[in-house]
Amino acid sequence: xxxxxxxxxxxxxxxxxxxxxxxxxxxxxxxxxxxxxxxxxxxxxxxxxxxxxxxxxxxxxxxxxxxxxxxxxxxxxxxxxxxxxxxxxxxxxxxxxxxxxxxxxxxxxxxxxxxxxxxxxxxxxxxxxxxxxxxxxxxxxxxxxxxxxxxxxxxxxxxxxxxxxxxxxxxxxxxxxxxxxxxxxxxxxxxxxxxxxxxxxxxxxxxxxxxxxxxxxxxxxxxxxxxxxxxxxxxxxxxxxxxxxxxxxxxxxxxxxxxxxxxxxxx
Length: 267
Hints:
The chain is α/β, with parallel strands linked by helices.
């Protein structure tokens, strides 16, 4: 098993964080990031976290009770509600962007936290971070009772292959960024009961807790021996993803190099 060390620069200045998605997992992550920011400053980090939240959606009645919103928030921007609440409580200067991230833009950030529920949005994170020069990508995903957290490094689009790079979610689970496999039914839930048929009440909180603890380990100690966790609340099991090429190989990463056919060799 190997160890991944935090990019040293991120211990010397404010860390730029972009949270994409402010719903089930995103709203949980933001509250935890506020705690992480405060803890980092208390322990001597020079700048803590500078967070920007990107989400185009408004709070609906179905969000109240499962996500971190109240009845008075219905109809308001998810990103703005959460950021304003944290800024007033913690005296931070975090920012909200009421829009959708697109694959064609350049997302300059040290850490992109993906709290999205579709392949197209994950592909947009991967493409936009790579276009801007690369950075960390923490992906959170879940189904009804289970989910996964994977932290990896997105390389710059022009970078040469690096065998020591920490693989990201798209490397290990390529299907989650394959937009051709996107499900057709993306109809939003019209009630809390309907939403709970699709996702267990605390699955977002469970997945987010492991994601936040992973960041805590990384920024507190500057290194991690695991960079992901698979969580199943139904059977109360978790499986860590170690920083280990042997573990990555079970996901088919890296892909075997294609051998060139010799002249005269049949197809």
